[in-house]
Design goal:
alpha+beta; ten-stranded mixed β-sheet; 5 helices; 10 strands
C-alpha cells in the first residue's frame, strides 16, 4: 500500500502525544518509500560526537565544525551525508529535486579536502520500516494508534539544515499546523 502523500522528501513529525520513547519529538526525512519498505533519517537526534571527533575515530584529520547525528536505530554502523543536490560523489542517491544522500568510503576525505556541498548533515544509522508498516503507522491501523500517528510535511532547507534538536521539532510542528490550518480556509 503506497500512498502518494508520503514520498521521498516528506518529513515525518512525531506528534506531541508520542512521549517517553526513542521517537519522542523526532523529525524524520523519508528517503525511500516503495513496496519493499521505507527508509529515513532522523534529523534532530545528535550523537555524542562532533564531526571532528568522529573523523578522528575513523583515522581522518578533519577540522570541520558541526555535530554527527543519529539517523535512527537501524544499521547504526552505516555512515552517510544528507546534502543539497549541487554536489555528488561516487555513491549519491537523489531523494527529491532538492536533496540527496551520499555514502562512500572517501566521504570524510572529500570533506577534508574542502569538497563539500553547500548544505549537509552527517549521520550514522537510519530509520527503517517493513513493507506497509509506515502506512499502517501513518493511518493508525492496529496495532498502531491514530492519536500517535506521524504528522507529515514537505521538507525544506530551513527545517532540515538551519534548525536542530527540539527547535527543529517545534518548527516542523508549527509549519505543519499552519499548512493544515490553511487547507481548511
Amino acid at each position: 500500500m503506497i500512498d502518494k502523500s508520503i514520498q521521498p522528501g516528506t518529513l515525518l513529525i512525531a506528534p506531541p502525544a508520542v512521549q517517553g520513547t526513542f521517537w519522542t519529538k523526532s523529525v524524520i526525512l523519508l528517503t525511500e518509500h516503495h513496496a519493499h519498505g521505507s527508509l529515513g533519517l532522523m534529523l534532530n537526534k545528535r550523537s555524542s560526537l562532533t564531526i571532528q571527533e568522529f573523523a578522528e575515530q575513523c583515522g581522518v584529520e578533519l577540522n570541520l565544525p558541526g555535530q554527527l547525528y543519529m539517523g535512527g536505530p537501524v544499521n547504526t554502523k552505516s555512515f552517510c551525508m544528507l546534502h543539497s543536490n549541487e554536489w555528488t560523489s561516487a555513491n549519491t542517491m537523489q531523494v527529491n529535486p532538492q536533496l540527496s544522500i551520499s555514502s562512500t568510503p572517501t566521504l570524510l576525505e572529500d570533506l577534508r579536502t574542502g569538497e563539500k556541498p553547500m548544505f549537509y548533515r552527517l549521520f550514522v544509522g537510519l530509520c527503517g520500516w517493513a513493507p506497509d508498516q509506515l502506512m499502517s503507522e501513518y493511518l493508525g491501523h492496529p496495532p498502531f494508534n491514530h492519536n500517535k500517528s506521524w504528522l507529515t510535511f514537505a521538507s525544506n532547507y530551513d527545517i532540515i539544515f538551519k534548525h536542530d534538536s527540539k527547535e527543529q521539532w517545534t518548527t516542523a510542528l508549527e509549519q505543519c499546523g499552519q499548512e493544515f490550518a490553511q487547507s481548511l480556509l
